[in-house]
Amino acid sequence: MRVRDQALETTPFTSDNYFQRPAAQADQADTARFPRNHVRYPAKLKPVEWLNAVHVRKHSGPLSIERAVLAAFDRAHPLDACLGTAEELSSLRSCLVAFVQGIDRNPHLLGIGRVLIKKLMTKYLTARCAVLKFCSENRSFIQTHGKLRAPFIITGLPRTGSTLLQRLMAEDPDARSPLTFEMESPLPPMSQDGDPLTDPRIARSGDALKLLARIAPGFLEKLAESHLWSATEFEESYIYMLAHNGVSVMSAPDAGEDYIRVQRQGCYHAPVLRYERMFFTMLDAYRPAKSHWVFKAPNYAPALPWMAKEYQDARIVLTHRNPLIVVPSVCRLMESWCIAFTRDGFFDKHRFAKIVSEIWEATLSVPLQYRRDNPDKSRRIFDCMYDDLFADPIAMVKRIYSWFDLEVTPKFEQRMRAYLDNNRQGKYGRHSYSLQEYGLDAEHLLESNYEYMQRYGFTIEEVGRSKRATSLR
């Protein structure tokens, strides 16, 4: 393990490794490409930025995240031996080393950005250690009572309707889907008789959000235009499980291109998925699903070969939307997060979009390759098209249930209708975005994803129709 760490320590890091550009190199008049930070941090945080100036010169000191984050990961040893071989766990740790070194050596981050990233990373790694210990101490009960049969796993590019689909399918009275506070503070697991809406962890999770809103005003409001983050919403299961194991998704661009290359190798998926299965088996043991669980995250798609092995009875739903429309939308979602950690005036949308495109490319290519290699598994996968979903969401859920030989009961349908009535699209605001805004070329994206575009009938012309439809709303 240490050999891999030492090899990474010799990797050269330069300013060009990151999407941000020094203010001196940016055209300050070009605010479309180099936007101002929408977060206005309080003046009392100024001393943190003085420390950050020292950190940028030395890559060490109180704002460094490497030592604390790796210590939080290592604290779970040897309990984490159940998650995989020494080589698999070494690959997972090496991914974490690449991330923390990328963050520490990024000269364009705010000091408070480093503090928040460190806090989030150590929080989830501490939760991982506690979960492993709890499962070890309660192994007999969990193995006897915990079941994870034929879960639904919804995946595909972000911004393809997967959030709506998960939250509709979670309305099935016989299903169970993970709530945000369960994944942020999993212990003790909810009991069968407990009321999820009165769980004390909701307040603690809300307190964390309130603190973030206080020290980073404007952050959550901007993020909510793309994705509502709430303690009592059903959330991205695998993104949380990756976070528990030290694999950052939303802050990945801030760690630079070297980290992105390590992350794209995907060698860490096997132990993370085993952790995920242990995690939800634990939750199910104390508050079981009557029939099945509903999981959702875009990051399942690049992990599809590993995920299909870990969940051999999974019912997989792939969501699809024209990548030429989706990619700038994903850029805007991730920009809402990353710009809050970046020094004002240093954010470069064009370079950012290049890294974001590289992060999510495997979300399209890996499922295609898996289906080519495993034609006998086609019955396990349902293709959900974005336009069909939003034209009639309930009809789409019925199609999915029929594909997997399940029934939508009258009570389930009634609950879905109530959810749709209370959660209209755009309720929390809308983002506007375009390929041009992020310096993206439609022809290049078409060529890069030609097989996917051809398979699902997506075209460049569809982008123009979508923009015209949006302008008429």
Walk me through the structure:
By secondary structure, the protein is mainly α. The chain has one domain (about 1-470): Rossmann fold. The protein has helices at about 1-10, 45-60, 65-75, 85-105, 110-135, 140-145, 160-170, 180-185, 200-215, 220-225, 235-245, 255-265, 270-285, 305-310, 325-340, 350-375, 385-390, 395-405, 410-420, 440-450, 450-455, 460-470; strands spanning about 150-155, 175, 290-295, 315-320, 380-385. A 5-stranded parallel β-sheet has the order 2-3-1-4-5. Helix 3 (about 65-75) runs antiparallel to helix 4 (about 85-105), helix 3 (about 65-75) runs parallel beside helix 5 (about 110-135) and helix 6 packs across helix 13 (about 270-285). The longest helix is centred in the first third of the chain and has 27 residues, at about 110-135.
